[in-house]
Write a structure and sequence with these properties.
transmembrane helix; 64% helix; elongated; 15 strands; six-stranded antiparallel sheet; Rossmann fold; 16 helices; 724 residues; membrane; alpha/beta; single chain
Length: 724
């Protein structure tokens, strides 16, 4: 007996870290809907045989990068454990006999793949289980929910027939059809006329060979002429190719020399340019050092800031302007002090004399007093008026002079303050300031400015030129490249190597092109002649080959006659044997189905008819009816009987386990009890794993002797209810 002992699900579907142990005989697995019963059975099938399309359904619900399962089963005192990684189809298998390891395997086993590792694994599984196809497993010993029918393509049906008969990989109908087709091709033409087709073809071919013999004789002379021409052309082409190779190597060497010479010329020009730049930079640096020394020799004038000369000139101009202002103030002050009298002395003496004459006339000459008094009065009035006007003029002049003095005094004060500030700045820059050295200082400042200007021009010239170190580095690199280039030129030239001029090189290239054209033309002619030769050879045949083919055709005619007779005999014998063979395995399978159908239906039905395409009919009151005409429960009972019978025959001496995933849902109480009785009977020779969702199975008759496992709603084993 082969029985499944343990199933471990580290990461499969809703299971994570679950483990289930089974025993020989009857095993009942109970769990409510969606507890994971179907997933458990699928893990067994998938681990051993692999999945073709359903793998993604069983990737763990909680996510992750694992989808694994491990199944152990025992047989003939041995135990095998198979572990499969479903994401990569990586399989590890170990077979042990006690403590000894009998077989070990590790490799990729994809259901759709092809590899030596896969073939080794499937060969071992077929030795143990009797088959290595998951479809055979799911259509025989494994019955899923709503999956009692035997479904699959023609290949699956053929494979089940092979397993039932014990003859592997043989489709007898195809063999018979192939033999009949071959016999038809040998003995019939299209249209159905009874004629020996292939024999006529042989005789027609012999007539063609006779004509070919004559053509071959004419072609012999033509072949000889073409061979001679081709040989001459090949010799000329070989010589031309040799000359071309030599010339190309020589011209390539000359070209490389010219390239090196051009590079040497360019490098030399660059080297001369860089050396001139280096000399120019060095000269500017030396001149800058000399100018800096001249600037340092100027002393404090070299350190004065720009614009200091303007400050000195401004101080000198201010001093001169202050002196002019002071002189002008002194002159105005003298003019104000020496202003003339208001009345002139002669006019005053005249007035006094007239008044004295008038007074004397008052006493001496009364008649002359009045004219003299009038004259004195007129002179006096004139003097008074003139004195008033002279005083006003003097006051105005004095005011004007005073105003001018005040303005000049304010200018002098402001100018003196500016001079004081300027003098303080001069003393800050020059120390003790000597006004007599102003001209000398200005001349020194002009010389320093001139020197600084020259230094600035030198710096500007250096600024547009590269740094001296970079120029020296570039000069050294160019010198190295120039030396390497000259060395390579000397190496290319060698001893006794004639160097062409560019004009001679152009002429040599033209000559090589002409030679290459001539060789190409000869190669073309050679190819044309070879094609002509091939055409002639294809059109001509070897007389010896023609004679040999004729002998073969004669022998073939004899073999064909014998083969036709043998094929006719083989078709007749194989057809008769095939009919007997089909009647044998269908009769055996039908007998097994009848007994199990009688038990499952509590004696209601006892006759099942299965044709060669596994189409099932049930005898109802002596009349065969298609199984689809029965109720759902009766259909499931008929198909379950078929599965149990088929699995029992396929098991042979192996006694394979039956895995039943809730197949009795459409059974009534009576037939469910009959089915459990039949399963109990099968469990005496086979392991039966029955998965159910109905608690009534736990209380069924004899259930206390079963190995019972309960799965909770979280997909975990809820303890073993009973251990047989």
């Amino acid at each position: 007996m082969l029985w499944i002992s343990r199933v471990e699900l580290p990461a499969f579907g809703r299971f994570r870290g679950a483990s289930f142990t089974f025993r020989p005989g009857m095993n009942l697995v109970y769990g409510r809907n969606e507890a994971g019963k179907s997933t458990l059975v699928a893990a067994i099938s998938g681990t051993i045989f692999g999945f073709r399309k359903e793998r993604d359904r069983f990737v763990p619900w909680a996510g992750g990068e694992r989808c694994e399962a491990r199944v152990s089963f025992a047989y003939n005192g041995r135990e095998m454990t198979i572990a499969r990684d479903f994401l990569s189809d990586r399989v590890q298998a170990v077979e042990r006999g006690g403590e000894r390891t009998l077989w070990r395997f590790e490799g990729k086993v994809s259901p759709l793949g092809r590899s030596s590792e896969r073939e080794e694994y499937l060969s071992k599984i077929e030795d143990v289980w009797g088959f290595a196809e998951g479809d055979i497993f799911r259509n025989s010993v494994y019955v899923g929910q709503r999956d009692l029918r035997i479904e699959g393509d023609a290949g699956l049906t053929t494979r089940i027939k092979q397993l039932l008969s014990g003859f592997a990989e043989l489709d007898y109908d195809a063999v018979v059809e192939s033999l009949e087709k071959e016999l038809f091709e040998l003995t019939r033409r299209p249209g159905g006329r009874s004629r020996d087709r292939e024999l006529e073809e042989v005789r027609a071919r012999m007539a063609v060979l006779a004509e070919q013999w004559r053509e071959a004789s004419r072609a012999v002379s033509e072949l000889a002429a073409l061979d001679g021409t081709i040989a001459e052309l090949r010799t000329a082409v070989a010589a031309g190719r040799e000359d071309l190779d030599k010339g190309k190597r020589y011209l390539e060497r000359v070209s490389r020399y010219h390239e090196a010479a051009a590079r040497e010329e360019a490098l030399r020009k660059d080297y001369d340019r860089i050396r001139a730049e280096r000399e120019k930079v060095e000269a500017l640096i030396a001149k800058r050092q000399s100018v800096e020394e001249r600037l340092a020799s100027l002393g404090e004038a070299a350190g004065l800031p720009d614009g200091f000369a303007r400050t000195l000139e401004a101080w000198t101009d201010g001093s001169e302007r202050l002196a002019v202002l002071e002189r002008e103030l002194a002159g105005l002050s003298a003019d104000r002090t020496h202003a003339g009298p208001v009345l002139q002395a002669p006019a005053l003496v005249l007035a006094l004399l007239l008044w004295g004459a008038a007074a004397g006339a008052w006493f001496l000459l009364p008649l002359a007093w009045l004219p003299l008094a009038g004259c004195a009065l007129a002179v006096t009035v004139f003097l008074v008026v003139r004195a008033v006007r002279a005083g006003q003029a003097r006051s105005a002049e004095t005011a004007r002079i005073q105003g001018r003095i005040d303005g000049l005094s304010a200018d002098a004060v402001r100018l003196r303050e500016e001079l004081d500030r300027t003098e303080a700045e001069l003393e800050t820059r020059l120390g003790t300031f000597d006004p007599l050295r102003v001209d000398d200082i200005l001349r020194e400042i002009d010389r320093a400015a001139e020197v600084r200007g020259e230094l600035s021009r030198i710096e500007s010239a250096l600024g547009v030129l590269p740094p001296l170190e970079g120029i020296r580095s570039q000069e050294a690199e160019l010198a190295r490249e120039l030396a390497v280039t000259r060395e390579s030129m000397e190496t290319l030239i060698g001893r006794g190597f004639p160097v062409m001029s560019p004009r001679e090189y152009a002429g040599a290239e033209e000559k090589m092109r002409r030679l290459e054209s001539e060789v190409a033309e000869k190669e073309r002619l050679c190819l044309v002649k070879e094609q002509e030769l091939a055409v002639v050879r294809r059109g001509s045949l070897d007389p010896e080959a023609i004679a040999e083919e004729g002998e073969e055709l004669k022998a073939r005619e004899i073999r064909l006659v014998r083969r036709v007779e043998a094929l006719r005999l083989a078709v007749d014998l194989l057809r008769e044997t095939l009919d007997e063979y089909r009647a044998t395995y269908l009769s055996r399978l039908g007998s097994e189905i009848n007994g199990k159908l009688y038990n499952l239906t509590a004696g209601r039905y006892r006759e099942a008819i299965l044709d060669d395409g596994f189409t099932l009919s049930i005898g109802v009151e002596g009349t065969p009816r298609p199984v689809g005409a029965l109720s759902c429960g009766a259909q499931d009972q008929a198909y379950l009987a078929t599965r149990l019978a088929l699995g029992g025959i396929l098991s042979r001496s192996r006694k394979l386990p039956f895995l039943l995933d809730d197949p009795l849902v459409h059974f009534d109480e009576e037939r469910r009890a009959a089915a459990l009785t039949a399963l109990n009977l099968a469990a005496s020779d086979h392991q039966v794993i029955l998965l159910v969702h109905d608690e009534r199975y736990l209380k069924a008759r004899g259930a206390d002797l079963w190995h019972r496992i309960k799965i909770d709603t979280k997909g975990q084993q809820d303890g073993q209810l009973h251990l047989l």
